[in-house]
Amino acid sequence: MNRVVAGCALCSASGLLWMGLFRLSNHLMTQLFKAKKWSVSAHHIMNMSEAIVSSLQAVASSACGVVVVVSCRHDVMKAVHPLASWYAWVAGSYFIYDAIAMYQVHLASLAEVPKRFTDRVCSYLRRRTLLVLHHVVVAFVLVPVLVYRSGLGDFFVGCFYCVELSGPFTNMRVVLSRLASRLQETRLPFITGGFVVQCSINPQRTGDILKRHECDGLNDEVTFWNILRI
Question: Cα Rg for the chain, rounded, in angstroms?
């Protein structure tokens, strides 16, 4: 019971942190663009704020993942690290926060916001059905599984957290696209951003999958190169 209470407290505190970072980045960018006299819509500013917070969560997730993987690499099935379970609470709070942030971004994108709350929610759900469903499943299905596991496979949970490593690069594309009108003098940021995204996502996620399979097959003397040839 104490563990559940501590987890709920961590989830609540981290949820407030994500929302606070979203509000802070939104405020700072609004003031920055006003100072520069850039005409950037409230919708685009909120969208970029969401991307910035998403990047911070990706960095935190990847850092926890690396710590867990390094600590548990000697025994990929039975080695245990507390971050594997505790960070799940933080990740769950992030997905709940992000569903709320996406709702606010959606409202900012509307030319006319419906007066009734139910109409606003229905409009949001119609537009973001799959993404909202993804967030709900992760927060209320996957997170409890990660928290209440039997204690096996922390190494693979760490690998799962490391998948978020590509997050900052994909979110860079969002920020660059929203500032397109201000960067139209040169296409270098877009070329560089696209190159970095493609060079980071595919090798990183492919390498993560191959490494997990290699470690899973250690008892059968399956090497990385065996897997790569398969």
Answer: 20
Query: What is the Cα–Cα distance from 133 to 161, expressed in whole angstroms?
Result: 20
Q: Which residues contact 201 (CB under 8 A, 6 or more apart)?
A: 166, 169, 170
Cα(109)–Cα(126) distance, rounded to whole angstroms?
A: 14
Of the candidates 206, 123, 111, which has an alpha carbon nearest to the alpha carbon of residue 166?
A: 206
Token readout for 156 is: 């693979």
Does residue 173 contact residue 91 with C-beta atoms inside 8 Å?
Answer: no
- Give me the pLDDT at residue 171, please: 84
pLDDT digits (tens, 9 = 90+) for 47-83: 999 999 999 999 999 999 999 999 998 888 889 999 9
What is the model's pTM? 0.80
Per-residue pLDDT at 150: 77
> Can you read off the two tokens belonging to residue 62?
């990847």
Q: Which residues contact 159 (CB under 8 A, 6 or more apart)?
A: 65, 69, 208, 211, 212
Angle at 35 between CA 32 and CA 36, to 5 degrees: 90
